[in-house]
Amino acid sequence: MPGAPLLEMRGICKRFSGVVALDNVSLSVGHGEVVALCGENGAGKSTLMKILGGVHQPDAGEIIMDGRPVKISGVADAMRLGVAFIHQELNVLGNLDVAGNVFLGREPRNALGLIDSKKIHANAEPFVRRLGLDVSTRTRLDNLSIAQQQMVEIAKALSLNARIIIMDEPTSSLTLAETTRLLDLVCDLSKEGVSVIYISHRLAEIEQCADRVVVLRDGKNAGELGSDEATHDKVVNLMIGREIKSYYVHSEGPKTPGFFKVRNASSTLYPGEKVSFDAARGEILGFAGLVGAGRSEIARAIAGMDRCPVKKIVLDGRTISIATPRDAIEQGIYLVPENRRTEGLIVEMCVRENATLPSLRNFSRLGLISRKREREASERQVVSLRIKTPGVEACVLNLSGGNQQKVVLGKWLMMDPCVMIFDEPTRGIDVGARAEIYRLIRDLAERGAVILVISSDMEEILNISDRIAVMHEGEITGVLDRADCTEQNVMQLAVGKKIPAAQAAYNE
Amino acid sequence: MKKELGIFILLVILCAVTGFKNPLFFSKVNLLNTANLIGLFGIFSIGAGIVIITSGIDLSVGSMIALNGMLSVIALTQWHLPWPLAVLFALAVPMALGLAHGVFITKFKIQPFIVTLCGLLLYRGVARFISNDMTKGFGDANGFQTLQDWANGTVWGVPTPFVYLIIISIVMWLVLHRSVYGRYLFAVGRNEEAARFSGVNTKLVIGSAYVLAGLLTGISGILFAFYTNDVSPSTQGNFYELYGIAAAVLGGCSLRGGEGSILGVLIGTTLLLVLQNLVNLLRIPSSLNFAVMGGVVLIGVLADELIKNARRKK
After folding, report:
1. Which residues of B touch A348 (CB under 8 A)?
2. Which of A98, B18, B257, B263 is most buried when burial is the number of CB atoms within 10 A of its CB?
């Protein structure tokens, strides 16, 4: 049947123990089409994709490929039909080389039944070259960057004759340059007739690469937009289903410049480079830059997580020394780390235990904890931050990303922050909860804290910051005042270009 | 309490069955004898449990008990130290060794399994060397009778090791379940990195757990030496590290760290010793001793896992 779309999913329904995850959802993908799948967390994107990938079985609905109904009852079926899934957390084996990963489970054998080493590398070579991956097929995967490992996964998909590649948040840990390269690759693949279903929270990327945007909301189709009409605002409106003027708040509250000064901080990533900057009390200073520019490492150094020998930090006129995280905490300098689940929280512990961990001594006498006071204090945070949890004794693991992040915030808010450093504060958090996090950050600034926000999300950094410091390879290339905070300016500084709008990071 | 309920029920059933088959089980002599053993094994098992909670392991316990016992004998019968001093010495050595474990693990980042495995081999060797590989004993405890009474006597008919275990359990329960330090122990066991981000001095917490374990093992070591009265350097305390680990795991400590309780360890220890008693009383060939223990630990842990899964599904 000519002209039939490659894939059609019709009327897909799926319930999980009584909860409707998908309600009559349809999706079609043409040959060589790039379809972006958008929606807030929990909108049903991943459930839909897991059904396509054979992980879940639909309760109702049909899947049609090339005009013929198909049944996908397992991952093997999906593979045979040419559906490949590139997960956000890559499924590669770091201890195997590129060829070994591409042909994992399908290794060519020699007469003795052992792996035919010559053949496996010869077979892998063309796929690797096709993706423009400039590494030997004998390189071990753990010697590659995340972006290169991702390319290896795509090579694996192509070697399986994939016709549809599902990419789930593929750029979440890529640098800007790597993101651009990935988006180019998506275009190339589509030209070669490979279809791509692209799931992302980053609307700018979607605008750039998608032929069509399909938006899900609460397990239903919320609408579709062609590439020409898929503007940021329209997509966001479909996702949340209501008009939102602006979920970023700006403030003109009082500021005390020079309240927090960092001089000659160096990071473990770029030990040779020195970073100095001033931040005002009451302001939000954004840190933009490519992933790997050393922003998180500087944050870790300031918070005492990494050893950083030459460093002078002045807080409110006093020079302080920070050698351990405890030192930073005692000065009121708190870090909300990049990785909530491994660094920010102890997810197996309950909300109360997490919230009071850094301030535990305030709830104890003679080394013994008063659980009552602990509970009262954490309940106050649950109320004031509007953390959605069954109670303070609930395990943090079961909370949504946004509520987990609020627990991290809550534990520092118990202790009157002086300087708060947020590293990727809204990564993996849906639009609604993001707005709340932004409001909390702004409130904190208005109450007289110094706020540093590291973010790789361009929209976020442009909208939340009062000023933006842009880093490039371990150095601050320039600081932009509010009026000069444009994507163009940030990008130029991020790639290491000097521009006239850029200010010095510090005086004296 | 919920977590310990399953294993506690298992314990009650085992006691009931053994007592039913052989009423001697509930005789005063047997109960007091078992209580004495529970005291001896329970004290170091609490130490093993604490180390496991930090997601570590201590394999050196048995050898440390041998070394410590031997040092006690030498200090009292050869050096003729006043007994309080001898006790201090016999407690300081295992604490120092625990500190060394802690330093190797936190500063040099060697895995606890390796560090304490080396300890297991090393201390056994030292114990045998300093005694010329000969059994040494306290004899009739000339000059330190008080210590002997304290270590191997009774209080109102109850064996002193059991009394010590109760006191230590109460103190350690407060430390582990009610103190700031205890919360930190669980925190580093669950997620060391996150604990560090929250300002916990993780190296100090982990290192001190081994010192604490050393202290408890040291106390057990002295008590064991007086229990056996003669210390044979090549067999004293053999496999006791495994008793400690088994008791802790039976009692709900997870080798992944961050999970466990004093009550659990106590019930676990009791269960292991009731099992030994059961083997004797039910005339099961004593060669099957370890096999019975292994089987029951496996069943206990399996049941725990199944209950957990069932609860999760609900």
Report:
1. 190-191, 258
2. A98
